[in-house]
Amino acid sequence: MKWLGRRQSDNVEDRRSISGGKIAVGGGVIGIIILLLNVFGGENAKLITPVLEQMQGGQTQTEAATPLSKADEEMGDFVRVVLADNEDIWGKIFAEHGMTYKNPKLVLFRGSVQTSCGGASSASGPFYCPADQKVYMDLDFFEELKTKFGAKGGDFAIAYVIAHEVGHHIQTLLGTSAKMHQDQEGKSQAEANKLSVALELQADFYAGVWAHYNQQNLDEGDIEEALSAANAVGDDAIQSKMQGQIVPDSFTHGTSEQRMYWFKKGFKTGDIKQGTTFEEI
């Protein structure tokens, strides 16, 4: 992605040099499961994570306080550019539809972080907290995604994740998230999960819309990087790798095929009205 020398957002809080706190050494299988349960959205998986983190509690804990390296600082600059692109594009789209876009903030952290949605560890993966309208990211997640789960990697994989989390912010602004949680009340777990899948796939669609309007800044292979990341975090891919079997009724984020499909649809159409995941899932 072409990002050097471009506008950077003022809405990034970089806590990497001060956050950290206690993190588990060696994480193990439970740590990986926590990360993947929460990846790319995480609102619903927040209910499951504390239980698994309790199971993980017996592992050795250590303090983490790593100063920012030159590479860390460069990555922070990249994140600021990507967030600025989201601000510009979504501000324009909202204005075209007679609405006002409110910029979210993005928090970079290491190890653990406190949010208005409660405490979270890096094992939670990137997530959006609607209570404070902030996106939270530990960038070490992307190395895990590449080395353990086969994603292609690359800077646009990170850009895609940021755009996906901003998609959850858009759902908050439009009232979609609140309506989904209301619709989940009284539903069976399978039916509630289905609504969660629709929410996540719509966020993937919004990420594709963002990429559609940002094509002048894309490099060759960027879209493939995003699709590789989407493929790696499909519920079916994760379950197959982690437990050796696939249980569709337990899906909360969508299959690899669905995640790639909705990102590509957003990228191809650039039309926010086409994100009809709740009607089609």
Write a structural description.
- The chain is globular, with a radius of gyration of 18 Å.
- The two termini are 32 Å apart.
- A four-stranded mixed sheet has the order 1-4-8-7, with helices on one face. The chain has a two-stranded antiparallel sheet with strand order 2-3. The protein has a two-stranded antiparallel ribbon with strand order 5-6.
- Helix content is 52%, strand content 10%.
- It is built from eleven helices and eight strands.
- With 281 residues, it is of the alpha/beta class.
- Its main location: membrane.
- The chain crosses the membrane at residues 21-40.
What are the salient characteristics of this protein?
single chain, alpha/beta, two-stranded antiparallel sheet, 281 residues, 8 strands, four-stranded mixed beta sheet
Question: How would you concisely characterize the structure shown here?
Answer:
By secondary structure, the chain is an alpha/beta fold.
- The geometry reads as globular
Strand content: 5-15%
Low-confidence stretches: 21-32, 58-64
Helix content: 40-55%
- Give the N-to-C terminal Cα separation: 32 Å
Class derived from helix and strand content: alpha/beta
Largest sheet, if any? 4 strands, mixed
- Would you count the extended β strands for me? 8
Mean pLDDT across all residues, rounded? 84
Order of SSEs, N→C?
EEHHEHEEEEEHHHHHHHH
Radius of gyration: 18 Å
**Total count of helical runs of at least 4 residues:** 11
User: Can you list the strand order of the major beta sheet?
Assistant: 1-4-8-7
